[in-house]
Amino acid sequence: MTKKKLSTRLIHERSGGRPNLTVNPSIDRGSTLLMPDIDALYESGRQTYGRIGNSVHRELEAGLCALENATQAQLTPTGVGACALAIASVVKSGDHVLVADNVYGPTRRFCRRRLRAMGVEATFFPARIGKELRDLITDRTTAIFMESPGSLTFELCDTQAIVALARERGITTIMDNTWGCGVLQKPLDLGVDVSIQALTKYVVGHADCFGGAVMTASDKHAAAVKNTATDWGTTLGPDDAYSALRGLRTIVPRVQAHGANGRRIAEWLLEQDGVADVLHPALPEHPDHNIWLRDFTGANGLFGVSLEDRGDKAVRAFFDALELFGLGFSWGGYESLAIPADPGAIREKGHWLNETEDRLIRLHVGLEDVGDLQEDLLCALNAYCN
Ligand SMILES: *Cc1c(COP(=O)(O)O)cnc(C)c1O
To answer: What DSSP assignment string belongs to 148-190?
Structure first.
């Protein structure tokens, strides 16, 4: 049989030897695993403790490997935990890491606070730097961390140029692929060594639990990640693993629907009064659109909108006028969300797109009716402009 498409595989791939005939695996809640006899307690290769997970975890890991073309998916309790685990598995005291300046805020905080305490120095580079990243590499550089498109401002990294540089120098590349989520971008196929996802977003897809995963394709990186996770005792609870697995089954059509709705809203917003710019890599106006065409197969529902500056009061009026777009952090669930974004508060100057007086807003377009969402945004824009 020919190799089936991802949407098919995510629905049909199940671990063998299930004791029941339900479509979904049952959740084994257990720390202790009871052994049949004394020899089994210390038998190598036998699972002897619940910390490494159970059947639900194995099925989720297999699905994530299919999603990202990985050979190993290491589960973590949160997305931040996955970012921290990936970086910590490839550095030691005295090393230097290069981190794209547009990474998720808590990843940046981990680099500044935790890496420093571990004796590792981090330099933040402008995400759009491309080949010039060469000038920032030192003899101590062991890892390059990218997030493409980056949080809040949606710049893309020239991943292929950066991977080529890193390979020349034996540097490990890591990509936070929460936006691309394996459906839209497969970093390991682009030559990246370690890919991360906050499962909390599109994999879980229903805003009801946390999870993270670190995906690898080479034995060397897989072993480094697994050993670090073992030493730190990171694990994912069985109920959360179950929710992530249930979400994973339908991620392909959900992300396609988010992407279609998001694109219609993004194009429509460009025409509206008060809107200065829309930061969406699928729009031809986006400065990194060509990289997006090369590295991605589509877009999701998350992008930025900058509004012409009308002051703080207008921004408050915009958010308070929204009824369908919820005001809240995170994204990737079925519902639409909006938050104000202030990248200047944490980033270095000159490192990001749209560094203007405009007011940046991040939208997550959900699975509601597009006309209803437009009506909601129109009310908010009226409140903003008047
Ligand atoms: C949300 C997010 C994370 C962190 O995920 P949590 O599960 O909330 O810890 C990491 N990276 C990106 C890009 C995110 O959007």
So the answer is: SSPTTT-----HHHHHHHHHHHT-EEEEE-TTTBTTTB-GGGG
Q: Are 143 and 88 in contact (CB under 8 A)?
A: no
User: Whole-angstrom Cα distance, residue 166 to residue 97?
Assistant: 12
Ligand 1 mutation target, pool 200, 234, 330, 337, most atoms within 8 A of CB: 200
Active site residues: 51, 104, 176, 201
Sheet holding 302-307, edge to edge: 275-279, 302-307, 359-364, 337-341, 326-327
Distance CA 29, CA 9 (A): 26
Nearest CA to ligand 1 atom 3: 79
Q: Write out the H or E segment, with its range, that includes residue 246.
A: helix 238-249
Q: What is the pLDDT along the chain (386 residues), one digit of tens a residue?
A: 578 999 999 998 876 666 667 889 889 999 999 999 999 998 888 888 899 898 899 999 999 999 999 999 999 999 999 999 999 999 999 999 999 999 999 999 999 999 999 999 999 999 999 999 999 999 999 999 999 999 999 999 999 999 999 999 999 999 999 999 999 999 999 999 999 999 999 999 999 999 999 999 999 999 999 999 999 999 999 999 999 999 999 999 999 999 999 999 999 999 999 999 999 999 999 999 999 999 999 999 999 999 999 999 999 999 999 999 999 999 999 999 999 998 888 888 776 767 778 899 999 999 999 999 999 999 999 999 98
What is 196-230 written as a DSSP string?
EEETTTTTT-SSS---EEEEE-SHHHHHHHHHHHH
Inter-CA distances, 239 with 72, 171, 208, Å: 21, 37, 11
Report the pocket of ligand 1 as residue ranges, CB < 6 Å. 78-80, 83, 104, 147, 151, 176, 178, 198, 200-201, 210, 212, 330
Across the beta sheet with 72-76, the strand order is 72-76, 212-216, 194-198, 172-176, 141-147, 96-100, 121-125
Backbone angles phi, psi at 62, to 5 degrees: -65, -40
Alpha carbon of 113 to ligand 1 centroid (Å): 18
